[in-house]
Design a protein that fits this description.
The structure holds three protein chains of three kinds. By secondary structure, chain A is α/β, with parallel strands linked by helices. Chain A contains 15 helices and five strands. Chain B has a four-stranded mixed β-sheet, with helices on both faces. Classes of the chains: A alpha/beta, B alpha/beta, C alpha/beta.
């Protein structure tokens, strides 16, 4: 039996090593894609293009505009001649925000007549719009304080002091980089195992194997081990990207690798499960593609689990990604250890085991029906 | 170019599509599925964020502040602490995401010159969520017993999405992404499948010319894809309640240009690949991924680094995101959309003529 | 043998438009990368003739066809089609010929009429002309009654006929047909050829490529293609007569000794182990060297001169078979306990259904150890299902089967060490080398390290794979893959070997070697079960079974089956016999229905 198993594993290792396309895809997913997403995926409001109509044209109004220009959140990208032009810019998406400084703004301000500052916001990006609104308030209040030279003027309310734990810089990159790596592990584990089994179906070698004394579980094991090894090895180049984006590593790398292996096995189990249903490579790819969306979606990566509709929340319990995201964030950003993480690890292992059992049953069942 | 030959190809192609149940259902089901999945999955709003409170004041004011948090849909009070030490433990196991600490003497200080300080502690790990939650939290605190002796009145008006629903934002951007994802894939597979089986040789050894063959594919697939676009826009309107403020006619014109641009990209990909697997991978890398990342559909282009902003110009989805939001939400006219539409049209022509130039009626 | 050039000189009194030939190739070569696929091809195809390109897979037939259709440019030399150059005037050529690609180039979702109409429309045919021609062509093909049936629901034979009709709709002067009979049942094949003969008589020039010798007999002239080169161009009867007097058949009690004597002798050209005889070919004409004759006549040997076939001509022209010694018997290795009844196969009322479809209908059969049993049938007759059931890959709906006394239905796991299976598609790992594939299959059969080495050495020896051990399977020709697939299937010395269409498209020399090895395996008591719809392969089988629509319609030795036919049927060969049995069966079913 050991001879048979080692023959099976050796074969799959050789096949993996010779498949340049797959190795290229693995490399792409683990590094380049993470890098691209790290730079491209941002929810922050930064350099929001704004248009300013300054009817006042005074030193004061220019000071106020400077305040906006200097802030990180906004970038003044034009001064339209009139309201119509400003609105046209808004419609074409050139600017997302129009500020109108009224006539006699500075005089009214000096006289304490509370001039009105008009702000038109493009609410399309709801998140950016509400943040822009808050930033505007903050900038205008700071301007008031400076203008009246009264420190109390600025802080007229309860002032929150904020402490951000675990991701102090509050940059999105840490989160994006880690979650893209999780996505890469998931995709490599699922797609490679599914594709390599389907390819054997297409070439017909699976039938050839089935007439030998080989057991289904031996085939599964032989498909799992090389993918597992490559999936883990490919993580080391990603460590460089992790370092590049300045993601902290507070916990133990060894523990992370161990738990990652469990996650990979559960991802491979999804792939094996898919391959037990499909017949052609094309079907497999489509099913992987659309199967992985819900798995990712149910992980709480894209939408917080608490914010999901109530009927969906229990379903998140069957997505291994949900557990692994917590593990990933926990080890990297919070520095927690196995004492806190063992339930998550156990859940992933359980999901994997169930999927393998179903896939094995389907293979044996198809064979004898 | 002979019209009778072009019509023959178009007729054949449309009949094949109409009778291929798998392709047809894929063509209509997948975009709808993607609209649903992304429409629900990508939410920039947060609701019911788990909140923990350490109230060291135990006063009417502190109770009022806690209520102010709990009353909003954004937060859900799940834990009251007795000491600061408990907070860290509870955050480590992700019991709460946000903790509010109200210092002793808060009640006494509210409304005085000396400002009371409350602390907001937030788990920054899922930072997309964290950022939003934090902002809600800060607004709540800031607005708590706000005084109204402002020097400047800020009159904010929010247009196009006054209720600030993120679903409107996401879904209106998805139209561009979905059309960039599926029509090219469908078109590429339709041609590469014929290449892989070899039956395309029958086309090579016939009087059909390259433009006739490619246009004969482009038009039926363009038509199907236009229906895809129409179906998802309708779904967005009726199911996700994305308002339609602009002109249907304008959207039809802009949509047609964009659809043919993407079908053209599919044709171009099919001229350079011979295997379905490669075609799928290429279509994903060339069309789907970039249209998600670099179109501005949820990740604003203006917030990206300068070189990345330049890079986004390669992808047609980038233009259509602005065009579709402009027409659908903002009632923009064609004059305001001349530039992106012109670029898309040019793009389409370049793509189609490149495909014609590359496609050879030869097996090798 | 030097390539014949006499036939390229054209008779001057040939009537018509293209006195020098409809197609003329001059020093035509085509390379893919470093690999020469066609080398210096010179041929001229006359008006209104059926010209055959004959050669095994990989000989360059398809490439030559593609060059003639102007959809592939030659690397060197030129090809002129109806006075137009295939490169410069490619579009003209495309528009004026009919070209049928070897697969099924139909649109499955479109009906017969729509497929015809598409073909007519892209050539600008008027509606009246289209309707008239469509009626004539489809009636001839027997498809006119199914006008609105989708092409995807037609049988292989019907599809080929429809493909041919779509290519005839614009009445081209020249038809290029690549592997006309691939996937076509014998009955439809006959109808296809009738259509071709009719077209030829109307003045159409036709080029047909095929790997099958029996089909080549229908052509007016033939070109033998071998590794990209033309070996000879001539009429089939002239090619036959080239080896008249060179071909003999020997019946003997000791094939091994006779084989080795023939191999050792310098006069020997090729040796072929048929079921009953050893068929051999000599360099000498009407003369057998006395010492050879004496050796062959030992062991009750009887030699008889026989008629030659195209196989013989091809072998002779391609330089004969590089004869090797009679395949060694398998080595002694440690094997799991043998089955109680060895390689005995028995089925009783075995029935397999897929929903309403009956793939195997109460098949009862017994095959003895050491027997080479051939299973004949068209595509879809149920042959593959039968094999898959015996291999335990398909569950049996009703009845049962036993291999070596073990019930396939209940204990197929027990059988797995004792069967070898070589599927039609040569299921090998394309990204592994020859040695890696062998070592892998040795491993999964649990052979010990030393046994594995012995078994691999033997399998590599008898299949002649020694030179290519480190080649990737994906880069190898079909013929080599076929040998490797066999090596993998027999390495563990199974009691029963299942072969699914093992030698279609393989060159005669390679085919001879393959069947010789099968002979050795049968001699050591291995049961060989072969399915085929390729009648040539039937010659190598001791007994034949014929399958039609899931039912077994006749079992016995080939000669006996021919004799048992009712008098009104005349069968010269196995193909005729098979068609006759199918006709009788169809008649019987019709009669039953009437009753």
């Amino acid at each position: 039996m050991w001879g048979r198993l080692s023959a099976l594993i050796l074969k799959d290792v050789i096949q993996f090593a010779r498949d340049k396309t797959i190795l290229g895809v693995v490399f792409w997913l683990y590094t380049l894609e993470v890098l691209i997403c790290g730079y491209a995926m941002t929810f922050e409001v930064k350099d929001l293009p704004i248009a300013v109509i300054d009817h006042d044209r005074s030193v004061v109004s220019r000071n106020l505009i400077d305040k906006f220009t200097l802030s990180e959140a906004f970038e003044v990208s034009g001064y339209p001649v009139n309201q119509e032009q400003a609105e046209s810019w808004m419609r074409s998406g050139k600017v997302k925000y129009v500020m109108v400084i009224p006539n006699q703004f500075s005089e009214d301000l000096r006289r304490g007549e509370s001039p009105g500052l008009q702000v038109l916001l493009d609410g399309t990006n709801s998140n950016a719009a509400s943040l822009a609104k808050d930033y505007t308030t903050a900038i205008v209040r700071a301007f008031e304080a400076e203008f009246s030279q009264d420190p109390n003027q600025a802080a007229t309310t309860v002032r929150p002091s904020v402490q951000i734990w675990y991701n102090r810089a509050q940059t999105l990159e840490s989160f994006v980089v880690l979650s893209m790596i999780v996505a890469a592990i998931l995709m490599v584990g699922t797609i490679h195992s599914a594709a390599s089994i389907t390819r054997e179906k297409e070439v017909g070698t699976i039938d050839q194997l089935m007439v030998t004394p080989t057991h289904v579980w031996e085939i599964f094991l032989a498909k799992t081990i090389p993918t597992l090894a490559v999936g883990i090895l490919a993580f080391f180049p990603s460590l460089f990207i992790i370092w590049w984006f300045g993601v902290p590593m507070k916990g133990s790398l060894l523990l992370f690798l161990f738990l990652m292996a469990i996650f990979l096995v559960s991802a491979i189990a999804i792939g094996v499960m898919i391959a037990s249903i499909t017949k052609t490579l094309q079907q497999t790819l489509l099913l992987c593609f659309f199967g992985l969306f819900p798995v990712m979606f149910l992980s709480g990566t894209m939408t917080p689990i608490d914010s999901m509709p109530a009927f969906l929340q229990p379903l998140t319990l069957i997505s291994p990604v949900r557990y692994f995201m917590d593990i990933c964030m926990g080890i990297f950003l919070k520095g927690v250890g196995i004492a806190e993480l063992w339930p998550a690890a156990l859940s992933m292992a359980g999901i994997g085991a169930v999927l393998y059992l179903i896939a094995g049953w389907r293979f044996n069942h198809n064979l004898s029906s | 170019m002979k019209l009778h030959r072009l019509f023959a190809v178009m007729r054949k192609e449309s009949r094949e599509i109409m009778r291929d149940k798998v392709t047809l259902s894929t063509a209509f089901l997948f975009p709808v599925m993607m609209l649903f999945m992304f429409g629900y999955a990508i939410s920039l709003e947060v609701e019911d964020v788990r909140l923990g409170v350490l109230d060291q004041d135990q006063s009417p004011s502190s109770a009022a502040l806690i209520d102010a948090f709990d009353e909003t849909p954004y937060f859900k009070l799940v834990r009251r602490y007795n000491s600061e030490l408990e907070i860290r433990d509870s955050m480590e196991i992700s019991e709460v995401k946000l903790a509010l600490v109200i210092p002793p003497g808060f009640n006494a200080l509210v409304g005085r010159e000396n400002l009371p300080q409350v602390q907001l502690l937030i788990d920054g790990t899922y930072s997309a969520t964290a950022l939003v939650a934090l902002n809600y939290g800060m607004s709540i605190v800031s607005r708590f017993q706000e005084r109204d002796n402002k020097l400047i009145k800020i009159q904010t008006r929010i247009w196009y999405n006054p209720s600030l629903q993120s679903v409107i934002y996401v879904v209106s951007g998805l139209y561009a992404v979905i059309i960039a994802a599926f029509p090219p894939l469908l078109t590429t597979l339709a041609i590469v499948r014929e290449k892989e089986s070899g039956s395309i040789q029958q086309i090579y050894a016939s009087p059909l010319t390259v433009p006739e063959f490619l246009l004969g594919k482009l038009i039926p697939y363009g038509f199907i894809s236009s229906l895809q676009l129409a179906s998802i826009v309708a779904l967005g309107f009726y199911w996700f309640n994305v308002p339609f403020n602009g002109s249907v006619g304008y959207l039809a014109i802009a949509g047609l240009i964009y659809v043919f641009c993407n079908v053209g990209i599919g044709l171009l990909i099919s001229t350079v690949t011979n295997s379905q697997l490669l075609a799928v991978l290429l279509a994903l890398v060339v069309t789907m991924m970039p249209s998600i990342l670099f179109s501005g559909f949820v990740f604003p282009i203006y917030a990206m680094a300068e070189p990345v902003q330049l890079y986004t110009h390669i992808f047609p989805a980038r233009y259509f995101v602005d065009v579709s939001r402009g027409i659908i939400l903002k009632d923009a006219g064609l004059t305001e959309m001349v530039r992106p539409l012109g670029l898309l049209l040019g793009y389409t022509l370049i793509v189609f003529f490149s495909a014609v130039a590359i496609f050879k009626k030869k097996v090798a | 043998m030097s390539p014949s050039t006499e036939s390229t000189t054209q008779t001057a009194d040939q009537p018509g438009q293209y006195p020098d030939g409809v197609i003329i190739t001059k020093n035509l070569s085509r390379a893919y990368g470093d690999k020469m696929v066609l080398r210096d091809v010179n041929l001229s195809i006359r008006e209104s003739e059926i010209f055959g390109l004959l050669g095994p897979d990989g000989a360059g037939k398809t490439t030559l066809m593609q060059v003639m259709a102007a959809i592939l440019d030659p690397t060197e030399g030129s090809c002129t089609i109806m006075d137009h150059d295939s490169v410069k005037d490619a579009y003209w050529v495309n528009s004026h010929i009919g070209y049928m690609f070897q697969g099924f180039a139909l649109y499955d979702k479109l009906s017969i009429e729509e497929n015809m109409k598409f073909s007519a429309d892209i050539r600008g045919l008027s509606q009246d002309l289209f309707l008239a021609r469509q009626e004539r062509l489809l009636k001839m093909a027997g498809l006119y009654t199914f006008l609105s049936r989708p092409a995807g629901n037609l049988s292989g034979g019907m599809r080929k006929k429809l493909s041919l009709c779509t290519n005839l709709i614009h009445e081209p002067r020249l038809l290029l047909l690549d592997e006309l009979s691939l996937g076509v049942d014998p009955a439809s094949r006959k109808e296809l050829w009738d259509m071709l003969h009719e077209s030829r008589d109307d003045g159409v020039s036709i080029v047909v490529s095929t790997p099958y010798m029996d089909e080549a007999e229908h052509c007016d002239r033939l070109a033998f293609l071998h590794e990209g080169e033309v070996l000879a161009i001539d009429t089939p009867s002239n090619l036959h007569s080239r080896c008249t007097g060179h071909v003999y058949e020997l019946s003997t009690d000791d094939r091994g000794a006779a084989h080795n004597a023939l191999v050792a002798h310098k006069d020997t050209l090729s040796i072929r182990h048929l079921a009953e005889h050893v068929h051999f070919q000599l360099h000498t004409e009407n003369y057998i060297a006395p010492e050879l004759e004496a050796t062959l006549k030992q062991n009750k040997g009887v030699i008889e001169a026989v008629e030659s076939s195209l196989d013989d001509a091809y072998t002779m022209l391609s330089g004969g078979e590089k004869s090797s010694a009679y395949a060694e018997r398998p080595p002694k290795i440690h094997l799991p306990e043998r089955l109680p009844e060895g390689g005995l196969i028995r089925t009783e009322g075995m029935t397999i259904r897929f929903g309403d479809f009956v793939a195997n209908d109460h098949v009862t059969l017994e095959i003895r150890p050491g027997e080479v049993f051939g299973f004949l049938g068209a595509n879809g007759a149920g042959k593959t299902t039968f094999i898959r059931a015996l291999c335990g890959l398909q569950s049996i709906t009703e009845g049962n089967a036993w291999i070596g006394g073990i019930s396939v239905r209940d204990e197929h796991r027990k059988l797995r060490n004792h069967i070898g299976y070589m599927s039609q598609r040569f299921s090998l790992y394309p990204d592994l080398t020859v040695a890696e594939n062998l070592s892998f299959f040795g491993g999964v059969y649990g052979l010990s390290r030393s046994d594995k080495k012995k078994a691999i050495d033997w399998a590599v020896g008898v299949t002649d794979l020694g030179d290519v051990k480190n080649n990737l399977v994906a880069d190898m020709s079909g013929a080599l893959n076929q040998r490797l697939a066999l090596a993998c299937a027999i390495m563990h010395e199974p009691a029963v070997v299942f072969l699914d269409e093992p030698t279609s498209g393989v060159s005669p020399a390679a085919r001879y070697k393959f069947w010789q090895l099968i002979q050795t395996l049968a001699e050591v008591g291995t049961t060989i079960f072969v399915t085929t719809h390729y009648m040539e392969e039937a010659n190598y089988c001791h007994r034949l079974g014929m399958m039609h629509q899931g039912r077994l319609i006749g079992v016995g030795k080939a000669g006996q089956l021919i004799q048992e036919l009712p008098q009104e049927y005349e069968a010269k060969n196995i193909e005729d016999m098979f068609l006759a049995y199918i006709k009788i069966e169809d008649q019987r079913i019709d009669d039953e229905r009437v009753v």
